[in-house]
Amino acid sequence: MARIEEITVKNYRVLQDITLKDIKPFSVFLGPNGSGKTTFFDVIGFLSDCLTTNVRKALEKRGRFPEVISRDCQSQEIEIIIKYRESKSQKSKSPLITYTVAIGLQNSSPIVSRESLRWKSEPDAEPFDFLKFEYGAGEVISGENPEINDKKISYRMDDPSSLAIKTIGQLSDNPRVASLRRFIEGWFLSYFIPDQARQLATVGAMEHLSREGDNIANVVQFLADEHPQVLDKILKQLTHRVPQLERVESEPTIDGRLALLFKDAPFSRPFLAKFSSDGTLKLLAYLILLNDPNPPQLLCIEEPENGLHHRLLEPLNEELVAYSQRAQVFVSTHSPFFVNTIKDAKNLWIFQRDNNGYSTVTRADQIPDAKHFIESKAGLGDLWSEGYLRGLPY
To answer: Per the database record, which ranges form the ATPase AAA-type core domain (predicted)?
Structure first.
């Protein structure tokens, strides 16, 4: 399982200069409205979009470069630095790799101004760049284990707004670059919208849930066809938590679409998803995500508490922790009820804004005023509500 261990973001909206170190497989991001949590998630989505399309299109989706770069910023570059390992287990630990990408302007058009991959091939060796590009031109050291003195191969990108790892990572002789490309391609941001899930979908099984959840009936159909044991597990979890719910299924309609149907135990006839509650649909979507037979390597979920009864948050937290044994998961939240379910303060990050208007982020166990309470096993959500979890004074 690939895993991010550190992220630095510079000049991306309110994230003018933040660094998160020693990120755990399960990480929760807490803070008031406007503190930068959603922007942090958008950085993940932005990098994913850059790989899927290019920097220019990813910026256009967000209002173009002047709207994304931090206000009153002296620099004219957005920079994202990710430190990750391709695998980490008790038996083996792959080398730490640093990916850096900077986005600037050239003739008023956004381009990738700098891009590099850096590692140490041996624990005691000096770190070096085995991929290094500037303004669309650069060099790569190929091979399974690039060495500093190995031959460098030069490339020039046709489109300087495209990431080098997108092109170079499709070549079989660059497995380390290809591994990063696949890792980023496997990131998934869930922005589940219950009203989207209520729509009738086109017929056809689909393996993975979409970001908004509009294909939830297709995924139920896929699980019924290909992974019935997984679907049975999901539905048992769902019916255990939603009173009177007996089963969920998908069914083709006369006009060639697919309907998601819910059946309550006291009644003989099922009802359409459009008559189901937001909470029931969200819980079903989360259970589908967390039981995915082929999970994304990084799953980001915004405010899972919305629409859910607070008693459902503890079992949801347990499932998120279990999921983090298979893949990394980031969650943003406002809910003290959800935060109270977090057992380890190292899993909790606090976002807030400083006096200059930029975001700061602090891991909960590193907040001096909260250490005594954390050590005494006080609820982290209660500490948040009472104002103890503050990285910097407001």
So the answer is: 26-340
Query: How many CB atoms are closer than 10 A to CB 19?
Result: 12
Cα separation, 324 vs 27, in Å, equals: 9
pLDDT of residue 394: 37
pTM beyond 0.70: the answer is: yes
161-191 pLDDT per residue, tens:
999 999 999 988 899 999 999 999 999 999 8
The Cβ of residue 122 has, within 10 Å, a number of other Cβ atoms equal to 10
- Predicted confidence (pLDDT) per residue in 136-157, tens digit: 999 999 999 999 999 999 999 9
Domain boundaries, the chain: 1-21+43-186, 196-287
Q: How far apart are CA 320 and CA 164, in angstroms?
A: 33
- 22/349 Cα distance (integer angstroms): 11
- pLDDT band (50, 70, 90) for residue 291: very high
Pair of tokens at residue 84:
């990750």
Q: How confident is the model at residue 391 (pLDDT cuts 50, 70, 90)?
A: low
- Cβ atoms 50, 163 nearer than 8 A: yes
Report the distance separating Cα 258 and Cα 218, nearest Å: 7
129's CB contacts (< 8 A; 6+ apart) are 116, 117, 118
Q: Alpha carbon of 338 to those of 28, 111, 303, 317, 333: distances in Å?
A: 10, 40, 10, 8, 8
The CA-atom distances, in angstroms, between 384 and each of 23, 180, 290 are 20, 36, 27
